[in-house]
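@channel sequence for tomorrow's demo:
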Amino acid sequence: MKTYVPWIGAVCACVVVYVLIWPREATTEAELEALAEGRTVIVYWDRHFGHEHDARRALIDEFNRSQEGVYVRALPIGYNSLMEKMLTSIAGGAPPDVCAMDGTIMAQLVAQGCFTPLEDFMARSPHFEEEDFFPHIWRSVAFDGHVWGIPTTTDTYCLLWNKQAFRKAGLDPERPPTTLQELEEYAARLTIRDETGLQQIGFLPWQPWDLTHMWGLLFGGKWYDETTGLVTCGDDPKLTRMLEWQRSFAIDPESDDNPTYAMAPEKMMSFQQGFGAYMSANNPFYSGRIAMITEGEWQATFIPKYAPELDWGVAFIPTPDDAPPRAYSPTCIADCIPRGCRNPEAAWAFLEWFYSPRPNGGTSPASDYNYAIHNIPVRLEEALQERFMNDPKFRVFVDVLLERETVSAPVMTSTQFMMDEIERQRERVVHRKTTPKEALETIERKVTAQLHRVRELLKRTTP
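structure tokens (generated this afternoon):
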């Protein structure tokens, strides 16, 4: 009996999933009315939730009122287990008609034949030309000879600093660090300890997010060669230097020459455990626990909401003097049409409306969505709209994409696996459980093996 218990549980779980995702014709009075009017009801899976989904839903409601042919049912699926839910829905013959998807996840699912190419749909409209989009964004959705998604939003990272903390440290609050050496010097001056322990940390490269992949590219390194399909990090001296730099933020017990900003790894963990919730006034940057961070453009909305009294600035991230000046935009969120969906033409009718300027010459719903949630539009023309550029803080995030070469996450079948392994090895390096060189060799070995496994699996499952 014990042998069958796991299988019984798995079957029950699948039944529950099917019940939740099966695209019933109508679930509300509005949908029943739409069906009675002869409209096609389509299902939209949104990887956003909370206020971001609310902003999307408001625009979908506008679409539903704007015409009499299609009605969109919007569901906030979220990003947790999104890949598994999509695979389950396709295998069960019940995919949504449209889904919002992280670019890195989309690339993995494209390799498994999960999405419909969109270039034939796009050719019908004048609003989907390659040159309209940021080049790095277009590369994330157009590969293997097809276009797999319509990009919606993108992000980038800049340096944020607490001006009040600068004043207390005797630093010019209007002058952020502009070089990596200055960043280290500022981090030292902004790190505060007293008899009770650490009170404020000047800077941590992995707070609030582990951005080791970004730091490696900003140092001039190369994790993966998209031309050859090979992982190339194992012997990259610039990536080695980057990990050595991150390790300098943790005290080496065998050295008498640690930087003054460095923390003991065990103290680092306890200090970080005292951080408050990210989306709250207790966020460590908002509360003054960290004086400088690398963060995204959404902070132009978050800080006025959660920490309206915070006096803060935003600037380009300092990079090594011998590295090319780069911006980092990891990926995009894109809308895709899953393979086997019931209503691809109706799905495209919605996407064409969402990404096109309104008939009265107004902005596109996609642009309005970016403005509502303070993400960067993926079209250059929309990113340059006054409502984005007139915000002096938000503008810095757009400017860095305009003024610097932009680097991104690679388009491959195991991007998330690679990102997870990079984060794991960075932590081992910081805690001195491995060397930077060994960590990079481990990343290359494990990701290469994973790529081979995926390729062999695809050979066996692809007709």
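heads up for whoever presents: The CA atoms of residues 160 and 432 lie 28 Å apart.
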